[in-house]
Amino acid sequence: MKQWETVVGDRKILRRIPDHQGRPMYTEERLFTYLQQFERDFLRTKTKIIDATDGGARKRGATPMPLASAIESFCDTEFASTTDDHPGLRWDLLEECIACLERRHDEAAEVEAISRDTMALLEEVRDYLSDQGRVNRLISQIDVLRARMNTFGRTYDLIMQLSQLTELARFHADRKITASRIDGAERQRRQVARDIVNVRGVCHAARQFQLLMRQVIVHLAEPLRDLKRGAA
Predict the structure, then answer these.
(1) pTM attached to this predicted model
(2) Which of 114, 125, 155, 187 could be a cystine partner for 107, CB 3.0 to 4.6 Å?
(3) Exposed (0-12), middle (13-18) or buried (19+): which is 120, by Cβ within 10 Å?
(4) Measured CA angle at 167 (ends 138, 41), to 5 deg
Protein backbone atom coordinates (compact mmCIF):
# COMPACT_ATOMS: atom_id res chain seq x y z
CA MET A 1 0.00 0.00 0.00
CA LYS A 2 2.83 2.45 0.75
CA GLN A 3 4.25 1.92 -2.74
CA TRP A 4 0.78 2.46 -4.24
CA GLU A 5 0.34 5.66 -2.21
CA THR A 6 3.65 6.93 -3.56
CA VAL A 7 2.63 6.17 -7.15
CA VAL A 8 -0.78 7.81 -6.72
CA GLY A 9 0.85 10.85 -5.13
CA ASP A 10 2.97 11.27 -8.28
CA ARG A 11 0.14 10.57 -10.74
CA LYS A 12 0.51 13.99 -12.38
CA ILE A 13 3.98 13.06 -13.61
CA LEU A 14 3.53 9.35 -14.34
CA ARG A 15 4.79 8.07 -17.69
CA ARG A 16 3.07 5.41 -19.82
CA ILE A 17 5.42 2.70 -21.13
CA PRO A 18 5.11 -0.92 -22.39
CA ASP A 19 5.54 -3.77 -19.93
CA HIS A 20 7.51 -6.98 -20.60
CA GLN A 21 4.60 -8.35 -22.65
CA GLY A 22 3.99 -5.14 -24.60
CA ARG A 23 0.95 -4.11 -22.55
CA PRO A 24 0.63 -0.50 -21.31
CA MET A 25 1.81 0.29 -17.78
CA TYR A 26 2.80 3.38 -15.81
CA THR A 27 6.04 4.33 -14.11
CA GLU A 28 7.28 7.40 -12.30
CA GLU A 29 10.22 9.59 -13.25
CA ARG A 30 12.86 8.14 -10.93
CA LEU A 31 12.16 4.53 -11.92
CA PHE A 32 12.09 5.55 -15.59
CA THR A 33 15.59 6.99 -15.12
CA TYR A 34 16.74 3.62 -13.72
CA LEU A 35 15.17 1.87 -16.73
CA GLN A 36 17.09 4.09 -19.13
CA GLN A 37 20.35 3.35 -17.31
CA PHE A 38 19.70 -0.41 -17.47
CA GLU A 39 19.01 -0.15 -21.20
CA ARG A 40 22.23 1.80 -21.80
CA ASP A 41 24.19 -0.85 -19.89
CA PHE A 42 22.53 -3.67 -21.86
CA LEU A 43 23.37 -2.01 -25.19
CA ARG A 44 27.06 -1.73 -24.25
CA THR A 45 27.58 -5.45 -23.72
CA LYS A 46 27.78 -8.33 -26.17
CA THR A 47 26.49 -10.70 -23.48
CA LYS A 48 22.96 -12.05 -23.90
CA ILE A 49 20.72 -10.44 -21.28
CA ILE A 50 17.73 -12.44 -19.99
CA ASP A 51 14.95 -10.62 -18.12
CA ALA A 52 13.52 -13.40 -15.93
CA THR A 53 11.64 -11.12 -13.53
CA ASP A 54 8.26 -12.22 -14.95
CA GLY A 55 6.99 -8.65 -14.70
CA GLY A 56 7.81 -4.98 -14.89
CA ALA A 57 8.75 -2.77 -17.80
CA ARG A 58 10.07 -3.89 -21.17
CA LYS A 59 13.82 -3.39 -21.23
CA ARG A 60 15.47 -2.81 -24.59
CA GLY A 61 18.45 -5.11 -25.06
CA ALA A 62 16.99 -7.84 -22.81
CA THR A 63 15.01 -10.95 -23.76
CA PRO A 64 11.99 -11.57 -21.49
CA MET A 65 11.75 -15.17 -20.31
CA PRO A 66 10.11 -16.97 -17.37
CA LEU A 67 12.58 -17.88 -14.65
CA ALA A 68 11.85 -21.61 -15.01
CA SER A 69 12.61 -21.44 -18.74
CA ALA A 70 15.81 -19.50 -18.13
CA ILE A 71 16.99 -22.12 -15.62
CA GLU A 72 16.15 -24.94 -18.02
CA SER A 73 17.91 -23.26 -20.95
CA PHE A 74 21.06 -21.92 -19.34
CA CYS A 75 21.68 -23.66 -16.01
CA ASP A 76 22.87 -26.97 -17.43
CA THR A 77 26.46 -26.95 -16.15
CA GLU A 78 27.50 -27.70 -12.58
CA PHE A 79 29.87 -25.35 -10.84
CA ALA A 80 33.31 -26.78 -10.20
CA SER A 81 33.64 -27.75 -6.55
CA THR A 82 36.70 -27.07 -4.47
CA THR A 83 37.98 -28.56 -1.27
CA ASP A 84 40.21 -25.59 -0.49
CA ASP A 85 39.41 -24.21 2.92
CA HIS A 86 39.38 -20.54 3.81
CA PRO A 87 43.01 -19.36 4.03
CA GLY A 88 42.35 -17.88 7.45
CA LEU A 89 42.09 -14.39 8.87
CA ARG A 90 44.94 -11.93 8.27
CA TRP A 91 45.60 -11.06 11.89
CA ASP A 92 48.76 -9.26 10.80
CA LEU A 93 46.53 -6.60 9.20
CA LEU A 94 44.43 -6.01 12.33
CA GLU A 95 46.28 -2.90 13.45
CA GLU A 96 46.05 -1.39 9.96
CA CYS A 97 42.34 -2.21 9.89
CA ILE A 98 41.72 -0.42 13.19
CA ALA A 99 43.65 2.62 11.97
CA CYS A 100 41.44 2.71 8.87
CA LEU A 101 38.29 2.55 10.99
CA GLU A 102 39.58 5.37 13.19
CA ARG A 103 40.11 7.53 10.08
CA ARG A 104 36.56 6.78 8.95
CA HIS A 105 35.28 7.72 12.42
CA ASP A 106 37.14 11.06 12.36
CA GLU A 107 35.96 11.81 8.82
CA ALA A 108 32.37 11.06 9.83
CA ALA A 109 32.75 13.58 12.66
CA GLU A 110 33.83 16.15 10.05
CA VAL A 111 30.80 15.28 7.91
CA GLU A 112 28.55 15.79 10.92
CA ALA A 113 30.13 19.16 11.71
CA ILE A 114 29.81 20.34 8.11
CA SER A 115 26.18 19.18 8.07
CA ARG A 116 25.41 21.16 11.24
CA ASP A 117 27.00 24.31 9.77
CA THR A 118 25.11 23.81 6.50
CA MET A 119 21.82 23.31 8.31
CA ALA A 120 22.28 26.59 10.23
CA LEU A 121 22.88 28.45 6.97
CA LEU A 122 19.86 26.81 5.31
CA GLU A 123 17.64 27.81 8.24
CA GLU A 124 18.87 31.39 7.84
CA VAL A 125 18.07 31.23 4.11
CA ARG A 126 14.56 30.02 5.01
CA ASP A 127 14.04 32.89 7.44
CA TYR A 128 15.33 35.63 5.07
CA LEU A 129 14.11 34.50 1.65
CA SER A 130 12.81 38.00 0.88
CA ASP A 131 16.35 39.41 1.20
CA GLN A 132 17.98 38.02 -1.96
CA GLY A 133 21.30 39.73 -1.31
CA ARG A 134 21.59 37.98 2.04
CA VAL A 135 20.39 34.70 0.54
CA ASN A 136 23.05 34.87 -2.19
CA ARG A 137 25.79 35.41 0.40
CA LEU A 138 24.51 32.45 2.41
CA ILE A 139 24.45 30.24 -0.67
CA SER A 140 28.09 31.16 -1.34
CA GLN A 141 28.97 29.95 2.17
CA ILE A 142 26.99 26.74 1.60
CA ASP A 143 28.96 26.15 -1.61
CA VAL A 144 32.21 26.35 0.37
CA LEU A 145 30.89 23.76 2.84
CA ARG A 146 29.76 21.53 -0.04
CA ALA A 147 33.30 21.62 -1.46
CA ARG A 148 34.66 20.55 1.96
CA MET A 149 32.11 17.74 2.12
CA ASN A 150 33.27 16.45 -1.27
CA THR A 151 36.74 15.79 0.16
CA PHE A 152 35.18 13.02 2.28
CA GLY A 153 33.56 11.30 -0.69
CA ARG A 154 34.20 7.66 0.28
CA THR A 155 33.16 8.13 3.90
CA TYR A 156 30.17 10.22 2.85
CA ASP A 157 29.01 7.40 0.56
CA LEU A 158 29.20 4.96 3.46
CA ILE A 159 27.23 7.31 5.69
CA MET A 160 24.52 7.67 3.06
CA GLN A 161 23.93 3.93 3.28
CA LEU A 162 22.48 4.68 6.73
CA SER A 163 20.15 7.43 5.46
CA GLN A 164 18.02 5.66 2.85
CA LEU A 165 14.78 6.98 4.35
CA THR A 166 16.16 10.51 4.07
CA GLU A 167 17.03 9.90 0.42
CA LEU A 168 13.53 8.61 -0.30
CA ALA A 169 12.00 11.61 1.46
CA ARG A 170 14.11 13.94 -0.69
CA PHE A 171 12.98 12.19 -3.91
CA HIS A 172 9.37 12.43 -2.75
CA ALA A 173 9.75 16.15 -1.99
CA ASP A 174 11.31 16.72 -5.44
CA ARG A 175 8.38 15.00 -7.12
CA LYS A 176 5.85 17.06 -5.17
CA ILE A 177 7.65 20.29 -6.07
CA THR A 178 7.74 19.31 -9.75
CA ALA A 179 4.08 18.23 -9.79
CA SER A 180 2.91 21.43 -8.10
CA ARG A 181 4.22 23.54 -11.03
CA ILE A 182 4.99 26.44 -8.72
CA ASP A 183 7.85 28.90 -9.17
CA GLY A 184 9.30 31.97 -7.58
CA ALA A 185 9.57 32.41 -3.82
CA GLU A 186 7.22 29.54 -2.96
CA ARG A 187 9.28 27.05 -4.98
CA GLN A 188 12.47 28.30 -3.35
CA ARG A 189 10.86 28.01 0.09
CA ARG A 190 9.90 24.38 -0.51
CA GLN A 191 13.35 23.54 -1.87
CA VAL A 192 15.03 25.01 1.21
CA ALA A 193 12.66 23.07 3.49
CA ARG A 194 13.53 19.89 1.57
CA ASP A 195 17.26 20.59 1.92
CA ILE A 196 16.99 21.24 5.67
CA VAL A 197 15.29 17.87 6.21
CA ASN A 198 17.88 16.15 4.03
CA VAL A 199 20.89 17.69 5.79
CA ARG A 200 19.37 16.90 9.19
CA GLY A 201 19.15 13.26 8.07
CA VAL A 202 22.80 13.25 6.96
CA CYS A 203 23.82 14.71 10.32
CA HIS A 204 21.95 11.95 12.16
CA ALA A 205 23.42 9.25 9.91
CA ALA A 206 26.93 10.60 10.50
CA ARG A 207 26.44 10.27 14.29
CA GLN A 208 25.19 6.71 13.87
CA PHE A 209 28.17 5.90 11.64
CA GLN A 210 30.60 7.18 14.29
CA LEU A 211 28.91 4.99 16.90
CA LEU A 212 29.20 1.99 14.61
CA MET A 213 32.90 2.66 13.99
CA ARG A 214 33.59 2.98 17.74
CA GLN A 215 31.83 -0.31 18.43
CA VAL A 216 33.84 -2.16 15.77
CA ILE A 217 37.11 -0.61 16.96
CA VAL A 218 36.43 -1.73 20.54
CA HIS A 219 35.53 -5.20 19.27
CA LEU A 220 38.84 -5.49 17.38
CA ALA A 221 41.00 -3.94 20.07
CA GLU A 222 40.88 -7.01 22.36
CA PRO A 223 42.30 -9.56 19.85
CA LEU A 224 44.94 -6.97 18.93
CA ARG A 225 46.04 -6.73 22.58
CA ASP A 226 46.16 -10.54 22.75
CA LEU A 227 48.38 -10.66 19.66
CA LYS A 228 50.76 -8.09 21.11
CA ARG A 229 50.94 -9.95 24.44
CA GLY A 230 51.64 -13.18 22.54
CA ALA A 231 54.40 -11.51 20.53
CA ALA A 232 55.97 -10.15 23.71
Answers:
(1) 0.60
(2) 155
(3) middle
(4) 115
